[in-house]
Fold:
Amino acid sequence: MHNSANEINSVEDAARKAESSTLFSPKFYRTDYEAMNKLNIEPVRAEWDAMMAEYEGDNNHDHFQRDETFADEVRELMPKLTPELRQEFLDFLVSSLTSEFSGCVLYNEIRKHVENPDIKQLMTYMARDESRHAGFLNSALKDFNLGVDLGNLKRSKKYTYFKPKYIFYATYLSEKIGYARYIKIFRQLEQHPEKRFHPIFRWFQRWCNDEFRHGESFALIMRANPGLLKGGNLLWIRFFLLAVYATMYVRDHTRPELKQAMGLEPSEYDFEVFRITNEITKQVFPIMLDIDHPAFRSGLEQLFACTQKANAGREAGGVVGRARQAYWAVAGALKFVQMYFIPVKSHALPNTVKMVPAW
Structure:
């Protein structure tokens, strides 16, 4: 059940949710633009130019527009949602909007601050795509009279500084795991259209192909600069893999009704997404998490339990509540550290970087 303090019932609630800075909420980033400016992509020039031609072709230019039946479906389906499912879906829309807009803001900032023509061109295309995604999500929120003021969000949300390599690891992973999440949902609802409780899910196939292509772009940057994939940087890759997987698991289990309404069991769904993402990331990361290790699954379950208990302490308030929140936050951090040391699997990188969606 949802605590009323976390419910989204007004424009102010939606804005507060989008602006919030928690461990599991999407963040806005700044980075070292001069370092981005110095990136060299010559080692992958042929693949890079082919990808830029794909972006220029813009095969999704007319995709993110609502068809005539969209509003009718919303009016028909929304009253049928339980209050819990409605809240989880609104939470999904706001966090997805924040994530997409975060990419748009970051890519636009990089575009404005670099002279490197390759990076400038890429960031222009990716900002264009993310702007479309954010706008489309916001239009869905406006159906509930809950649209987010994106200009105000850009001004008011806290920014986190990330080195370029952290941007590459985290954004590559978020784009690829975003592809795996969306394609799994799309395939499920393609087979079970009676479980599609909102029309936005009809857009997920071509949407996730945008995510896939964005991930490919970061893969090319990393393969063109192989120092990013060696030595001490493997420790950072390991960290970001675990952080992204753990965040997804906790978030999905915090809103289980969303997946259950689609006929998906949250843990099975998450591990299928992990498997797809592991297969994809072989193209660029020489290591991957051993998601079948017994300590991995039990660790995620314990992380979720710690998060729930920390949230309960925060909501209880007072000295005792805050102490409980702090205790379980530390317990969760220690569990994450333990999981970090679960042995990873290593493999050789393929000769060809480019992948095509095969799921």
